[in-house]
Amino acid sequence: MRRGKLTVVGAGPGDVDLITLKGIKALQAADVVLYDALVSSELLEYAAQAEKIFVGKRKGCYAYQQEQINDLIVERAEQGLQVVRLKGGDPFVFGRGAEEMEHAAAYGVEVAVVPGISSSVSVPASQNIPVTKRGAAESFWVITGTTKEHKLSTDVALAAKSNATVIILMGMSKLGEIMELFKKEGKQNTPVAIIQNGTTDYEKIGVSTVASIEDKAREQQLSNPAIIIIGEVVNHRQQLLDVQKEYQNQGKELLEKV
């Protein structure tokens, strides 16, 4: 009997073209694919012959609890099957990929990981927002907005004191609390962007400041899944648009003179 294996694969931020070639190869070799809610169904086509099991969460309802997912991985691997655990973004960035690998390894299952493009940096990039920029930000924080105790991470308060770009995942339910921490640091005018469904056809963005981003979020009906980016780098998006517009206007003026 062949030996089973768990491969935890990062699917990238949402755009199906942003999965890695190694991730595609893992799917093609899979006997079983356990996939999450934020994974595009198009990616499952690479695993045409595999058993596909949805184990994600939709509208607050879990298809499987984490313990059940862990048991499912071990059960299928012990049958000698190649198990792919397909997760959005990168599986080691708030993805529980490390926990699942540890559990499987404790039962003697061979484990591997295929890194994915993390939504924390790629989703801002999709809207021309760099997470670092010379003269604007020398570093960046990536923080979960909601801990396993369903509370706001204490790291947000620490990040608010820094000059770094702050990227918050799973933080929309705590948006007001987050902005209050930045206001306490005198950062009412710091730019903020919220990007919902990043890199997909349903992508939406709202840009404002710490003082008014809550109003912007309500106005544009922004909600999860979304990423919050706080910092001067948010201005780069508009600066780039202004440069492009100026270039186009100059081109029109030259054509009119011909």
Secondary-structure content class: alpha/beta
Number of helices: 8
Arithmetic mean of pLDDT: 93
Note the run of SSEs as H and E: EHEEEEHEHEHEHEHEEHEH
What is the percentage of strand-forming residues? 15-25%
Overall morphology: globular
Which stretches are low in confidence, meaning pLDDT under 50 for 5 or more residues running?
Answer: none
Q: What's the β-strand tally?
A: 12
What is the rounded Rg?
21 Å
Name the strands of the widest sheet in spatial order.
Answer: 3-2-6-1-7
For the biggest sheet, the summary is:
5 strands, parallel
Helix content: 25-40%
Distance between the termini: 77 Å
Walkthrough of the structure:
With 258 residues, the protein is an alpha/beta fold. Helices cover 33% and strands 22% of the residues. It has 8 helices and 12 strands. Strands 3-2-6-1-7 form a 5-stranded parallel β-sheet, sandwiched between helices. A 5-stranded mixed β-sheet has the order 8-9-12-10-11, sandwiched between helices. The longest helix has 23 residues. The model has no long low-confidence stretch (mean pLDDT 93).
Give the helix/strand layout.
Blueprint: E1 5-10, H1 21-28, E2 32-35, E3 51-54, E4 57-58, E5 61-62, H2 66-77, E6 82-87, H3 97-106, E7 110-114, H4 119-126, E8 140-144, H5 155-160, E9 165-169, H6 175-184, E10 191-196, E11 204-209, H7 213-219, E12 226-230, H8 235-257
Parallel strand pairs: 1-6, 1-7, 2-3, 2-6, 8-9
Antiparallel strand pairs: 4-5, 9-12, 10-11, 10-12
